[in-house]
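Protein in question kept in full:
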Amino acid sequence: MKKCIFIVLCFICMGWGVVDMPLPPKKASKAWRWHAEGGFKYPSSYFRTETFVDDVPASVEVFSKGDTKLCYWSLLGTWSTFGDFPENGVWLSPTERVYEVTYRAMSKGIASGHTQEGNIFYLKQKIVPGGEVKHSKMLVLIYPPSAQSRVSTLIGIVKDW
């Protein structure tokens, strides 16, 4: 009986705003981790590093395993919001730049192509709302051509981000 009264009181207090119970963070599974700020999941077996790229200037988080990298740029400047972004020479990771863009869906913010190192990239860009100057964030997957069959799940994560 005491347990039922306690539960009823909790629901009443939540309705009145007395008890604020936040929703639990999204979780995918033990094999995946949720990046709360970025709003995407990544394999828990991937190693995370963060680097500041002076040429951009911005920080990039890189989640990598072997020759596959998932890079999250949380804030890119005004130069990244133009209709021709990304273009040749643009940084995709702290070590790789765009060589050529072979596919672009500007309305969806998606582009893919090849890096100067011969890898394939697939990226999605989002414009950050608000502010006087437009900024964007970007999630990019970089992988060698030989890994095409094993990165389909990661491509889907980037596409649906």
User: Anything to note?
Assistant: The chain has two helices and nine strands.
